[in-house]
Amino acid sequence: MASPETALLKAYRELVRLGERLRGAQVRLTPHPDLAAGLHTEAREGLTQLAHLLGARVEWIERPDAPRQAVGLELDVLDQDGASA
Prior knowledge:
The protein is an alpha+beta fold. It has one domain. The chain has 3 helices and 3 strands. The longest helix is centred in the N-terminal third of the chain and has 15 residues, at 4-18. The mean pLDDT is 88.
């Protein structure tokens, strides 16, 4: 099983890969509760800050049905009229 740090690193990379496409988006980060319990507060806050720097709003939602080894990433991207795409 991946460590919490490895799971967060993968989420960091995905946010960076998405870059400008995150501007104005709602990002939901969805770890399994067991994984969330192993995340250091500073690392979690760092991921949130990265998303904010890229222009996204962030929400953390623990999901018991999520994989235990990954931080899920769900996006609601707004179109130019402000509607969800």
